[in-house]
Specification:
2 copies of one chain form a homodimer. Chain A is α/β, with parallel strands linked by helices. Helix content of chain A is about 40%, strand content about 20%. Bound molecules: 3-isopropylmalic acid (2 copies). Chains A, B: It is an enzyme of class 1 (oxidoreductase). Chains A, B: InterPro entries: IsoCit/isopropylmalate_DH_CS, IsoPropMal-DH-like_dom, Isopropylmalate_DH.
């Protein structure tokens, strides 16, 4: 039986709590003789700053490169508000994305039927919602240079960020979206601001050309990012796969996630290019470090456990195990087990560890 | 009686239809002896491209500079999709904003009680919603240089947009937000991405300093733009005044507008600096040119008529007339008159002209 190398980076806030539940699930798969994992754990974000003075040590970066998949919790919190830009907790995550070449971020926004009531939107607008945001993750304004603050002669400061995209960067993320759409409802919407941004002009032009040349069988629609944000609120079910750049993807995927009422349940995958039949990958919950509820056994571990299910499927080729884990999650929810974030008024809520235990029991 | 100089720029799509209703209202105020207007009309956007080959003629720009206020409809549509970046319809609007120095865009998001049902959100989340997004309008990625597409040696293209902010630009828009908050519920939320963008770092630092020095009596909260988009969906009533940059403002204000269920009802004001007691200003509906319903007498003219009410108040000092117009709108709605966009199922909808006539009747 092949051994799958996992680097677990719990991070900050509720990260360690939800990561602990993932470890339980990994242990179960090993005990059951279904798969074998070699799991290393390291620090990232604020935890790494406290220990090493940097948000990701070189040793952790090397381990990430050597792993078949990285499982990432969450980073950041008020404790590290003053550490300075280069050393902030988020820099650890951004370095992982960039140095592992994880250009494709897949963020499903699924409204679980049992939770449709938890959405801010009217039930009929979100019930059955199942869209995937494909976000470009290693380009755009996140990494473009110059990126600086300079002091001018009159004492004023001037800050600059640079959004850059090349044809090749746009093509490869669009291809991910089109390929994914073919396995789903065969529709892609591409969001940019070509009416204001040159990167938007190139984005639209490149997606249009790639579509005509290689994906003419897939439905394609172009939508302005501001209008897309509106449409996500007005009628999210009109979309299937939504492809967009790094910054718009950051915002639009958060809107989409929040719509589902299932923020604590949504996993995500960040994938690199396929090389020699494998690809680098990092899996993380869509939610953040939630410092306000950290350490209180209140966090919902489902997004993190669902991220493991994605790793089983996309990185380890363990399709059956992935299905098995996802249906254990579904059965646990169907049995009425709820953490606080998804418990309706008057329902009993369980804690993080109880939810993890319940899922293992269902396995 | 002073004569107020207005430049009316109806633009494209439904722009001319809603602008026509504003002309009716202006005529009523003149007939009633309440105010005197000198109204010029000119072309902008696609209409100007068709007539002059550019989205805003020099003559129209000069008229805008000479006017006390510009009333703007909407621009753009599929007809001009191929005209090229420099000449696209939106360039006319962007030039007006930049050359008139309209750095402060005020976008109220109000949920009219009668329309709470029209929101995609659950009634209790939006009923009574009254927030204002203060969007920086002449800086950021909209205007920063370089902004270009270059062809690389290998035939690939590389597109660049540049987001730039100076201390002074941030201070003046933050001051608008704090001043406005003092007349409202005294709370400002400032949205940026300081965890990823240097402009976000300078934004947060500058807002924090200005607050400490001059507005310590106003409540201030910093929120990441992606989280802010989420919070707008989760619980929009937590906000009072929300200040943010040009690009985030574009998206967040569209989300906020859509939440209200009243998109066709929301006016906006774009204001310049006060010089010699006056300030340049442009008023426009938040909605766009809606080419799909143009020319069919279906558009809701209330956002445009409400924009005139803002002009009466902020540019002409006609506070009573502004109140009068706004209460005429409220009474018209209370009487059950509805255009299609806000008509509930089973309700009779009136057209654009009928809604305009009804408001004039209420005056
Ligand atoms: C933590 C932060 C740097 C990150 C981002 O902006 O990409 C987060 O918001 C996300 O969406 O993964
Ligand atoms: C028409 C377009 C250039 C404009 C913008 O992006 O600012 C519009 O979306 C707006 O919000 O006023």
């Amino acid at each position: 039986m092949a051994t799958h190398k996992i680097l677990l980076l719990p991070g900050d806030g509720i990260g360690p709590e939800v990561a602990a539940e993932v470890s339980k699930v990994l242990a179960w798969f090993t005990r059951a003789g279904i798969a074998q994992f070699e799991t290393e754990t390291d620090l990232v974000g604020g935890a790494a700053i406290d220990a090493h003075g940097v948000p990701l040590s070189e040793a952790a970066m090397d381990r990430a490169k050597a792993a078949d998949a990285v499982l990432f919790g969450a980073v950041g919190g008020p404790k590290w508000a003053g550490v300075g830009y280069a050393k902030r907790p988020e820099a650890g995550l951004l370095r992982l994305r960039k140095d592992l070449g994880l250009f494709a971020n897949l963020r499903p926004a699924i409204c679980y039927p049992a939770l449709a009531e938890a959405s801010a939107l009217k039930r009929e607008l979100v019930e059955g919602l199942d869209i995937v945001i494909v976000r470009e993750l290693t380009g755009g304004v996140y990494f473009g240079e110059p990126k600086e603050i300079v002091t001018l002669e009159d004492g004023q400061k001037r800050a600059v960020d640079t959004q850059v995209y090349t044809t090749g960067e746009i093509e490869r993320i669009a291809a991910v979206a089109f390929d994914l759409a073919r396995k789903r409802r065969n529709k892609v919407a591409s969001a940019e601001k070509h009416n204001v941004m040159k990167t938007g002009v190139l984005w639209k032009e490149t997606v249009t050309r790639l579509h005509a040349e290689q994906y003419a069988d897939v439905g394609l629609e172009h939508v302005l990012a501001d209008n897309c944000a509106m449409q996500l609120v007005r009628n999210p079910k009109q979309y299937d796969v939504l492809v967009t750049d790094n910054l718009f993807g950051d915002i639009l995927s958060d809107v989409a996630a929040m719509l589902t009422g299932s923020l604590g349940m949504l996993p995500s995958a960040s994938l690199g290019a396929v090389e020699n039949g494998t690809r680098r990958a990092l899996y993380e919950p869509v939610h953040g470090s939630a410092p306000d509820i950290a350490g209180q056994n209140l966090a919902n571990p489902i997004a993190m456990i669902g991220s493991l299910a994605m790793a089983l499927r996309y990185s380890f080729g363990l399709l059956e195990a992935a299905d098995q884990l996802e249906s254990a999650i579904t059965r646990t929810l169907a049995s009425g087990t709820r953490t606080r974030d998804i418990a309706g008024p008057g329902t009993n809520a369980v804690g993080t560890t109880e939810m993890g235990d319940a899922i293992v029991r269902e396995l």
